[in-house]
Specification:
The chain is an alpha/beta fold and 396 residues long. The chain is 44% helix and 17% strand. Helix 11 packs across helix 14. The two termini are 33 Å apart. Bound molecules: nicotinamide-adenine-dinucleotide.
């Protein structure tokens, strides 16, 4: 009944999706454009059968390739990917493996990649390949953006979060002195290659964490998607192949649509930060002991709470958001994360951290709220006391 009411009362924002109807979404490649000009393709592939063609299309014949991966991902996929590249018309394929983990998403790791490129005489026409999750993609993209003032890079995302979010849109960067993504650049990938089969080795907690960004996509852009996620949560959390492909495709279309409209985050792209102002603050406060998606889940609850308190959404919509996050076993209270950190929760300190957030203009935090499930709005009037109240609603 509740869903029916939403669909009748709210006209869903179909403008975000272009050609495909929601009901008969078929997985096909997506071309991300800028000013109506194609910039790069998101290719859905089950065995990377497209490699030869890709090398030709990207003018990489005779060029060098450096695959960057982290220590967890490398053991599963690096050899396979390297041998696929070596079968193509390239001059060399080298690899660079760094220690997995957000704590290594820093300039030291980026400079180590760059050192390898220099030692191996990479020039402006050679290419970096990011094989891994968001950490690998963000750092490899950043290395590609600064090496010789910018070389090409290909995203091969292997985590759910990277497939639906971080590999698309060209935001690259590293953390700096504990502050998330403080140093970075916009640098578009040349191609994104998504092989959903790679999710089979992703640890369950990491897989579930990826659903926070997926649920965020639905909340900010598409109430049909929200309903789909609610109806199919059982299949989704159990990695049902068709269901997860559909979800990844749907989220990629939403991200594509937003980044095409606003490639460098001057306006609507900020909607993607829904849940991130307090989510990032919680992530830092918890000394990065929680996963990104777990903190974003708590941030989503806070942003929805503030939206409800301002009468922008109804109490039942707030409850529906909490219910959906719970269905995906994501945390919705501080009690839910006690198993990962026993740090005493200090609401004042978490709220204070938001001032150093990139989304702050120095005085005011650029907060993202919703006025319905499926529609986000930017608001710069959210006060520290509203944030603290929302954090208090997460319990202790
Ligand atoms: N650039 C963007 O637009 C954007 C958007 C959202 C998040 N991010 C960034 O992305 C990062 C989070 O991404 P993440 O959750 O993918 O983190 P991650 O890259 O650290 O990957 C999570 C963990 O899963 C492992 N892993 C990844 N794929 C695997 C696989 N297939 N099999 C086995 N293990 C695998 C990794 O080794 C790591 O231990 C954060 O740094 C966040 O700031 C960036």
């Amino acid at each position: 009944m509740i869903y029916l009411r939403i669909i009748i009362l709210r006209i869903p924002d179909l403008s975000l999706l272009t050609n495909n109807t929601k009901a008969d979404i078929i997985m096909q490649n997506i071309t991300v454009k800028r000013n109506a000009k194609p910039i790069y393709d998101i290719i859905f592939t089950s065995e990377y059968s497209c490699f030869d063609e890709l090398i030709k299309k990207l003018n990489l014949s005779g060029r060098k390739v450096c695959i960057v991966s982290d220590s967890n991902v490398a053991i599963h996929f690096l050899d396979e990917l390297k041998s696929l590249f070596e079968k193509c018309d390239i001059s060399a394929c080298i690899t660079h493996v760094f220690n997995a983990g957000e704590e290594n998403k820093n300039t030291d790791t980026v400079f180590a990649i760059i050192e390898d490129l220099i030692k191996n005489h990479f020039d402006r026409n050679d290419v970096l390949v990011a094989l891994g999750g968001g950490v690998t993609g963000d750092m490899t993209g950043f290395a590609a953006s600064i090496y010789l003032r910018g070389i090409k890079f290909i995203q091969v995302p292997t985590s759910l979060l990277a497939m639906v979010d971080s590999s698309i849109g060209g935001k690259t960067g590293v953390d700096f002195k504990g502050y998330k993504n403080m140093v970075g650049a916009f640098h578009m990938p040349s191609t994104v290659l998504i092989n959903t089969g790679n999710l089979s080795t992703l640890p369950k907690r990491e897989y579930i964490s990826g659903f926070a960004e997926i649920i965020k996509h639905a909340i900010i852009a598409d109430n049909y998607y929200f309903k789909y996620l609610m109806d199919n949560y059982n299949k989704a959390v159990n990695l049902d192949t068709d269901c997860i492909k559909e979800i990844i495709y749907w989220s990629c279309r939403i991200k594509q649509s937003v980044v095409e409209k606003d490639p460098t985050e001057k306006g609507i792209r900020a909607h993607l930060n829904f849940g991130h102002t307090l989510g990032h603050a919680i992530e830092k406060y918890m000394d990065f002991k929680l996963l990104h998606g777990e903190c974003i889940s708590l941030g989503l609850v806070c942003a929805a709470y503030i939206s409800m308190k301002r009468n922008m959404i109804a109490a039942y919509e707030y409850t529906m958001i909490i219910d959906l996050l719970k269905k995906y076993t994501l945390p919705v209270s501080f009690a839910d994360i006690k198993q990962y950190s026993d740090k005493v929760i200090d609401y004042d300190e978490i709220a204070a951290i938001t001032k150093s957030d990139k989304k702050s203009d120095g005085k005011r935090v650029k907060f993202v709220l919703i006025d319905s499930i499926g529609n986000a709005v930017i608001d710069t009037s959210v006060t520290e006391s509203e944030m603290k109240e929302a954090l208090r609603a997460l319990g202790e």
